[in-house]
Sequence to fold (398 residues):
Amino acid sequence: MTTATHDEPQGLRLTWRIVQIVSFTFLAYLVIGLQLAVLPPFVHGDLGYGAVLAGLGVSTQYVATFLSRGFAGRTSDTAGPKRAAMIGMAACGVSAALMIVAALLRPWPLASFALLLAGRLALGVGESCVGTGCIMWGIGRVGPAHTAKVISWNGVATYGALAAGAPLGVQLAGTFGFVAIGIAGALLMVAGLLLGWRRPAAKVEAGERLPMHHVFGRVFPYGMGLALGAVGFGALATFVTLYYAAMGWSGAAATLSVFGACFVGVRLVLGGAISRFGGYRVALVSFTVECVGLIVLAAAGSSAMAMFGGALTGIGFSLIFPALGVEAVQRVTLSNRGSALGAYSVFTDLALGVAGPLGGWLVSGGRYGPLFATAAAFSVIAMALTAWLYLNHGRRTA
Fold:
């Protein structure tokens, strides 16, 4: 594989170079999106298992993602981010192949479900390796000064692929059967591996490799800020449909679409704000906007007001990951930044894992206002934590 260093491109050339790398994130998350909406119906309807096992089929991927973040980061630092991304795409391809076999073994439900779980584990490993690898690969190709822009574009690729993949998966499964999900995913990953092999690699930074627990300790406060902010996103994504149903409103899907459009739009339009104003300041503004959006959701008296709250939440949440992520990776040397990014990303997994059961407990009485109010309170705590980090690290760095 060819190794190349970055030469600080600018303008459209900079954006094109970033897009060339994060396109592999798009392909991998398209495979994830293809499975997202059709997996529970396959487990429940075709295999005949209950809702608990259908949920297990989905959540297995997230457990594997959580557990493999450290491996993804360390591989990016030692073997190079391109290697990590290629391993990730190969793992996603393995997952797709196992989906094909699981679909063919549908007459034997136990064997089919076991292979499906193995495929979800492979997909989780692939997600963490592609996510971390492509960000570090992009940074290596354009330079650390453009870290925020790479993270922002990688997020656009991630959420864009999930938004496109879910309806496409439903269409494929409805027309050709569940086996088509596996075939489509395998073809996407073969294409990704062939294209990725031709892309120049980024230089592996020389230097001392810190133990993972040291890296984790350095990014911990930034990750906690991310987790506190991500609870709001998890609450909205998980419970907004039930919220609308409980209130007798229509338009829950439209609210999710508005949230996604605002999220992606802010990253595209305002991604450069992090380089201009600094991650701490952008994060503070982002938490404030997200908090207001969640308060509007909690107090909404109509579907239009709830949609407005969802839009504000999407605007606020959009830049939290890259804003705090830029500051987090600067707490370690270049030779440990892949590990730092992997450790930092764990907190998103943690927040989304907590949001479900916490939200379920809060709405057990059928009232959804306390759920979004609690998420808003978490945003306030995140603001205070970010302000503390800025006072102790941000001004000193500046």
About this structure: The beta strands are 3-4, 201-202. The radius of gyration is 21 Å. The first strand starts at residue 3 and ends at 4. Residues 106 and 164 are 27 Å apart (CA to CA).
